[in-house]
Amino acid sequence: MKICLIGAGRIGIVHAIAIASEQNATLHSVVDVNQEAADSLAKKYSAEVLTIDEAFSNADIDAYIIASSTATHADLIEKCSQVGKPVFCEKPIDLSLDRAESCAKSVEQSGIVCMLGFNRRFDPNMASLKNKLDSNLIGSIQSLVITSHDPSPPSMEYIRSSGGLFHDMMIHDFDMACWLLNDLPESIYVSARANDKDIKREGDVDTASVIMNMKKGSIVTILNGRQAAFGYDQRIEAFGESGMLQVKNELEDKVVLSNADGINHAKAQHFFLERYEKAYHNELLHFMESYHLGVKPSVNIEDGVLALRIAEAAQRSLKSGLPENL
Amino acid sequence: MKICLIGAGRIGIVHAIAIASEQNATLHSVVDVNQEAADSLAKKYSAEVLTIDEAFSNADIDAYIIASSTATHADLIEKCSQVGKPVFCEKPIDLSLDRAESCAKSVEQSGIVCMLGFNRRFDPNMASLKNKLDSNLIGSIQSLVITSHDPSPPSMEYIRSSGGLFHDMMIHDFDMACWLLNDLPESIYVSARANDKDIKREGDVDTASVIMNMKKGSIVTILNGRQAAFGYDQRIEAFGESGMLQVKNELEDKVVLSNADGINHAKAQHFFLERYEKAYHNELLHFMESYHLGVKPSVNIEDGVLALRIAEAAQRSLKSGLPENL
Amino acid sequence: MKICLIGAGRIGIVHAIAIASEQNATLHSVVDVNQEAADSLAKKYSAEVLTIDEAFSNADIDAYIIASSTATHADLIEKCSQVGKPVFCEKPIDLSLDRAESCAKSVEQSGIVCMLGFNRRFDPNMASLKNKLDSNLIGSIQSLVITSHDPSPPSMEYIRSSGGLFHDMMIHDFDMACWLLNDLPESIYVSARANDKDIKREGDVDTASVIMNMKKGSIVTILNGRQAAFGYDQRIEAFGESGMLQVKNELEDKVVLSNADGINHAKAQHFFLERYEKAYHNELLHFMESYHLGVKPSVNIEDGVLALRIAEAAQRSLKSGLPENL
Amino acid sequence: MKICLIGAGRIGIVHAIAIASEQNATLHSVVDVNQEAADSLAKKYSAEVLTIDEAFSNADIDAYIIASSTATHADLIEKCSQVGKPVFCEKPIDLSLDRAESCAKSVEQSGIVCMLGFNRRFDPNMASLKNKLDSNLIGSIQSLVITSHDPSPPSMEYIRSSGGLFHDMMIHDFDMACWLLNDLPESIYVSARANDKDIKREGDVDTASVIMNMKKGSIVTILNGRQAAFGYDQRIEAFGESGMLQVKNELEDKVVLSNADGINHAKAQHFFLERYEKAYHNELLHFMESYHLGVKPSVNIEDGVLALRIAEAAQRSLKSGLPENL
């Protein structure tokens, strides 16, 4: 599977590493408006550097991975629809729900494999949780609590183009909730604040508690924050009628110091690149498998549209101070 | 300090045990409409059995502990006001906020020591958390999450007279939130369901997620459930600008079995009597200290009124499906 | 059960507290060469102060608890034999194995109940471990590892009269090993050092690793130290053919701080008085039960003699540098 | 760095994977008496298949990795000495100390880089422990306890050619102890048994407790077992004058199930290939670095000789039942 990677930034590099470690995948080419970034990555993995136009007219390319800025996602997905080749795209499809929906239509009409980058689904811990929930290990789920704290806020430049906490960060948790419960929200209520002055100035929030009433009766609670002194905090608790399942944080190491100050364990792994390293690899494997079998991936463009729809409702609730229906 | 205990049921027995273990306190007498219960408890601790009228006309008695049914609390507190003697009363003051407020007025006018039984404040873990928060160990608190699950639902008889989940169970969490944060809620939003058919039939709920926006800016999230297969689940997480403080569950023991099925720790202690054994004792100590020094206890009737006010707003939100102001 | 307590020091106080909390036991009287200590304890629990002679001629006394200095134990036990009354005695019986054996003979001839103070057997965690081992939960035990560290070394005065690490501290672990495995050691090998200069000057050691080959085939490893910066360290690991059972430390509380320095739990409970508070109480209950039923307690003078025999062999191994047979 | 891999079995494959993931290393060729294994591995990584003679006469090869059977190690290392090229060899050098010493001499005379495969030193947890010990985080080390249990016994064929528990398994722990403490043992005492009948028939043992008295005064205790129902058990505890440092097991995942049976965590990772995956990679990086800088690796043939010397003393102690000097 010869892959053209569009976007040679932080996430693009992660994909390049995953491709390099796979026997049956090759990094064919790299596209980036930042010529230096494209050259550097291409050189490291013996790939070509292409322009966008070259990329979509090159017959050797089997599939595309889109890791460029959000604003380009929908257009690039539609180009893949036009050339009829499989595409893996980082979330979100677009900051506008309308644009995302029109893009999804193009995918549907073309029939291409279009996989969305909800990487957490491919984390071994999350996959194991999903598997245990589906096998009814704790009975029907009455309450699901998802906690996500980033280690520290992103740059203001990033914040400005991110679409806000709900479209950028909590969108993962919206997807997780629907996926884990095989369910959809009926309504969403948001309480959120900006504790960081810079984030406040941008009109965004950095701390949020959210409740979603799900159609089948579960209550979903999501806690988000842009900073956690102890690392990347990613936990889930599912309360069922016959037990609780939790995913706990991965710690930096297993060394424990016991002394007069207490019993000290390592911090949580510091960022998503470490915590979800395996997830990114498993994600690529699933994309390759979908391509080879020609089947819909388990996470596709409709999931991306759904998560956006919830993010928009969250934004409405933030403004109105009321629960909003979906 | 000669104590008259009104109510010889489950909680009454807990108080009797605490009194017996204290050198400077004596169980003077026991009052209960259930004659058998009163006799049995009085005999065990060499106390007298009195009627209510005798109890309030007996000059030997220094103080009263009220552990009778909720409906009697306000009347009994007012009798203590009338005789001008210190009283410790289990929560809630009354199921009606109005009645609780008039009762509080009588206490205020009489000037008696009136301590409310929010036992969790006296748990060594919670007290340590409070102490660490007040000392600014993790900076200002952005988010507080309180999780409380009972091991199994109470009897339907209990449910019927309990005033519902918010007045009976979550009232503890309302008090904890205000106490831990030294703050008051501006608004409250409730999502709740009855998963248990019997509880549903009674018009009550058994599972709830609640968000409170606090005046000083923290967001409080409370998760409650009437049953947890793994014991009495009582946890708190406070997220501050420079760290997180958690209170974790006390487990039944420290024996760990590692085998082909995994690494198995004991369940959480099964019920509040075990989990809060020390809390009940510390509570008594504080009541005795307030009595001896003649000062207001750290948790008094106003705290009880506040918690009830929040419970009423919660009930309103449950009905309206909207956030309710306080 | 009217109890005469001989010894009003640290351990004596622990026993007095346990007696006070038991409905069916009364602290009848206190004996101590330190008049002040005896007076103070007796006053607190409304008991009499007696001389040794009075104590053994008082017909009201039902049983004796010996918590005086080690050198007096054997004589006092023999006095109990002479008056034919039950006795609970703190370990060890004596520092000399010969003296302990002659004392045991007097007990045997008199037929009195004589219980030895191996308190750990009555700790709920250890009792649960024993129970699980006896029920064959992990199959036959191949290896047993006992770790015991005191929080800090005792006074040099204590060290001098203690009989040394093996007779004073590791004697508990010798008893635990035999009890947990229902087995006896064939041989013992000791490696030990004094890291503390004062302890070295006294000719004692403070750090030791010991291996015992047990008759039925298990290998027992014991690790001891006189100081641990993180509290009272008391752990056990039993490796069986189908799993491992561990007893972990009880921590001071369940509050966890997560910040840039890591994830910090409380230290282990600081001393044996906290860690074994319940054990002391359960021990008293068992003594009372043995007295009432007139049966041999589960831990009696023969167990004390056995533990001393092992401590003597340990001392021989320390000197010879070789494994010593028992 | 073009590497010739000698040995295409289980460990050989691990090295091939590590090489493939490194940009600056290439698997040049594979040698194995099992033609099929060599072909399969070579094909997967586009490498050549060579005979031993070809491997040592091929001028393109920069370095050798020896992952063949133990009996061939010393001869192959000497061939590397002869051709003057760097070699990485799996432990042990040989089962005979004499042979290992003569081999070490050839390495010394040739001056080649010769790194030994004590992989655990390169595990991030162990490396962090080492770092913390060297930085004096817990003061001088009084006691070091190393626990190693394999998940299940190897095949009898493996047992027969392994050289026994001490040469095959505990040799890692001997190396760890000397490395972590920067010290050497003065004497060693072994208690060991065969609980498995098949292993007993082979004259080997499967369960051992070992005490080593170290020159600088620490006591080292090593616990080994050939089977642990809960996975690959690899733990270390270092007790210092101001604290304890532990390395705990890596678990299979971070999913926790709490229900009526208790609180169940995942088992320890099942085998060394998972637990030490990163260690194997770091090991390769260190070998590459030693090659490029032309310096002695941090773990070299002398360390292999030392560990063998301790294993021989352990074997003597097992026979004599006495501590043996080194």
Structure in words:
4 copies of one chain form a homotetramer. With 326 residues, chain A is α/β, with parallel strands linked by helices. Chain A has 2 domains: 2-119, Rossmann fold (3-Layer(aba) Sandwich); 120-325, Dihydrodipicolinate Reductase, domain 2, CATH 3.30.360. Chain A is 41% helix and 25% strand. The first copy, chain A, contains 13 helices and 15 strands. The first copy, chain A, has helices spanning 10-20, 35-44, 52-57, 70-83, 97-110, 124-134, 156-162, 165-168, 170-181, 197-201, 272-275, 277-293, 301-320; strands spanning 2-6, 26-31, 48-49, 63-66, 87-89, 114-116, 141-149, 185-193, 207-214, 219-225, 233-240, 243-247, 255-259, 262-265, 324-325. In chain A, strands 12-11-7-10-9-8-15 form a 7-stranded mixed sheet. In chain A, α5 (97-110) packs antiparallel against α13. The two termini of chain A are 39 Å apart. Chains A and B meet through β7, β8, β9 and β10 of A and β7, β8, β9 and β10 of B. β12 (243-247) of chain B pairs antiparallel with β13 (255-259) of chain C, so a sheet runs across the interface.
